[in-house]
Design brief:
44 residues, 0% helix, two-stranded antiparallel ribbon, 9% strand, little secondary structure
Length: 44
């Protein structure tokens, strides 16, 4: 299940004029039993 989390420095407006070099994309893998939705762990 993809999950998108955007973190930005405080004080930026909703639309930022940033160069590509200033944007990072990070992928973190989480095993299903460690991912909870509505209090229930994911299934393998």
């Amino acid at each position: 299940m993809p999950f998108v989390n955007i973190t930005i420095y405080e004080g930026h407006p909703d639309v930022c004029q940033l160069p590509r070099e200033a944007v990072w994309v990070v992928f973190n893998e989480v095993t299903p039993p460690d991912w909870y939705v509505a209090g229930n762990p994911g299934k393998k």
